[in-house]
Amino acid sequence: FKGGDTCEYLLSSGRFLGEKVWQPHSCMMHKYKNSEAKNCLIDKHVVFIGDSRIRQLFYSFIKLINPQVKEEGIKHGNIPFEDKSASIKVDFLWYPEVNGSMRQRIKSWAEGSVAKPHIIVVGAATWSIKIHNGSNEALAQYKINITSIAPLLEKLAISSDVYWVLQDPVYEDMLSESRKMITNEKIDAYNEAAVRILNSSSRNSKAKVKVFSVSKLIAQETIMKSADGLHLPESSRDTNAMILMNVYCNKIMKPIDGSCCQPQPPLTLIQKIAFCFFTLSIFGYLIISLIHRNNYRKNKSCTDLESGEEKKPAISTPNVSTLEMLLHCFCKLGLIMTYFYLCDRANLFMKENKFYTHSSFFIPIVYILVLGVFYTENTKETKVLNREQTDEWKGWMQLVILVYHISGASTFLPVYMHIRVLVAAYLFQTGYGHFSYFWIKGDFGVYRVCQVLFRLNFLVVVLCIVMDRPYQFYYFVPLVTVWFMIIYATLAVWPQIVQKKANGSCLWHFGLLLKLICLLTCIYFLSYSQGTFEKIFSFWPLSKCFELNGNVYEWWFRWKLDRYVVFHGMLFAFIYLALQKHQMISEGKGDPLFSNRVSNVLLFISIVSFLTYSIWASSCKNKTECNELHPSVSVVQILAFILIRNIPGYVRSVYSSFFAWFGKISLELFICQYHIWLAADTKGILVLIPGYPMFNVLVSTFIFVCVAHEISQITNDLAQIVVPKDNSTLLKRLLCIAGFFSGLHFFSAMQDQSRH
């Protein structure tokens, strides 16, 4: 409501999330690493001027550059710091009072020939209060001195970043006798004088001294933990240093999770073209709708006044044309993409950092599971992993993953390991579902492949264009797409072995197993040959799809993390369909899957296996080591869940329609959350309604789910138009799609050239 100056908010307002995490009002703060701080401050000169409190801030700041620095310097003297590797100079200059000496130093930069520092941090007052015993004369002199310094600081602010640090409150009960005259009332008077005088003469918005008042808010929460009642605890001053780093470096480094002080990115050429296309689609659809409405009114049946009978129209209302349906879909999609852009690219809505607590993750999970149980219905069929059951499975997994993302639960390792199993379970279903289709139907036609690829990739391609993000950024879709093509290639390559052919001879089953063994061998080889993997996906045009930040390492990491689970899904489908064909399992309504004895034994083993995996995942101490084991052991919990869910006849015969509804739009939910539920590319949380966290989540969730559902319908409608069943028409559409991607590549190359 006050405008989009997030820098001002960062310097003046915020709150604590928990005890140590500071949340600026309306924007996200990036946690800078040493390497990032050095890259930002390379060839820079930073100066801190003031008393012992400013000296504390100086030390916290240089520790962001070099954490090995120890606070060993002259207490009441100047302290230099230099990082020669990055040519960074940071100096602390001891000027405990705002007086003539401080003015002379500042004047030498503002009016002299001395090189000006790039960043100047100034602040002092407590010494003046202490030395003059809190007298009113000292305050009057302070006002005179700061009035003489203000024009010089404003002159420096034209070319440098100048910050005036307001005085933090003190904890009066802990102050020593020699500091008892430093009261919060006196500090407030000095701060008020500084704020009123600074920038009072400045008419140029660029020549503005930035008032660093946020430290007061931080101190109000933490000063009770001070060792002497005057100086802040280390965690608080580290927060102040990190805020300073964000104010200066965010506009230079442009971190994704540092939205404070970042200007809105300019529209790219491709984004401008997309905007024009959607605008034309909206106008085109409105024009066609008006024409149809007018035709309908002209031909609408009317009453004959003489006979009193209704006349029939001479022409019947025409069916909706393909062009109108296309324009209708693009019209809706254009409005939705506008919302995406406003949420996560424009500085219109607020964004906040995530903050994990156990209650923020587990309470919503329990609530969602209870809701799911209330919507229990009978399934149409009672086969293992029937359609309703797989939709239900996808649905509850997706809801758990969404809660995991918004709560920031990735910082809690046991939750992270269980979520990894859910992602693996999605890929398991990919292997199971596509293998079952090709094995039973034997349909390896181009139409089937194009339909699957279109439904998987349509939304992501649109978001890559509108949100200016690489394809690999939405990692799950490339993962599922590549595994679908691997499954297709494995089964479609000569000799094509399908169920109908295999029924004639058992040798075909061995042939299929041989294919699966070859697939497993290739997966194993690539998983231990990072160089070969990276060479394959570094070739053009694959590199355009799978590179992120100039390399394919992220794609390698994502692929390797769940490298075996799709194979496990294919193998499970093969074994299950073989058992089903030979009538070795019972899938009648209410019947256990096997004989009572076998069912009970398998159910017991499944429950033990499920719990054993959970205990192991919960005892994980190191994410890297657990990730190494995950590809081999995740299938244990997946298979255990399938058996627990399907062995008892009653459990197999019911499903949750609540979860199944979400399962049908699970892909759209997973992708849309990046920009319209979370924020800053999943790093933060979108804030539509500030000040009311629960109400904000309810409103943003409602919009998010509705948008995901609408996009699912748009994708299905467009799939029927873009991927027709007629082969000759399909070939023409594929040529059009090839032309579209060629144009996209051309404009992308132009865009990259203009950036460089």
TrEMBL record:
EC number(s) on file: 2.3.1.45
Pfam families for this protein: Cas1_AcylT, NXPE4_C
Claim: Membrane is one of the keywords in the record: yes
Transmembrane domains' residue ranges: 269-291, 325-343, 355-375, 396-417, 452-468, 474-494, 506-526, 561-579, 600-617, 659-679, 685-709, 730-750
An example Gene Ontology biological process: carbohydrate metabolic process
UniProt key word S-adenosyl-L-methionine: no
Record membrane topology: Multi-pass membrane protein
Keyword list, A-Z: Acyltransferase, Glycoprotein, Golgi apparatus, Membrane, Transferase, Transmembrane, Transmembrane helix
All residue ranges annotated as the NXPE C-terminal domain in the record: 22-72
Cas1p 10 TM acyl transferase domain segment(s): 253-734
Family matches, as InterPro entries: Cas1_AcylTrans_dom, NXPE4_C
Subcellular location: Golgi apparatus membrane
One of the record's GO molecular function terms: N-acetylneuraminate 9-O-acetyltransferase activity
GO cellular component terms, A-Z: Golgi membrane
Catalytic activity, reaction form: CMP-N-acetyl-beta-neuraminate + acetyl-CoA = CMP-N-acetyl-9-O-acetyl-beta-neuraminate + CoA; CMP-N-acetyl-beta-neuraminate + acetyl-CoA = CMP-N-acetyl-7-O-acetyl-beta-neuraminate + CoA; a ganglioside GD3 (d18:1(4E)) + acetyl-CoA = a ganglioside Ac-O-7-GD3(d18:1(4E)) + CoA
Similarity comment: family membership: Belongs to the PC-esterase family. CASD1 subfamily.
Record-given protein name: N-acetylneuraminate (7)9-O-acetyltransferase
Naturally occurring in which organism (per UniProt): Melospiza melodia
Taxonomic lineage from the root: Eukaryota, Metazoa, Chordata, Craniata, Vertebrata
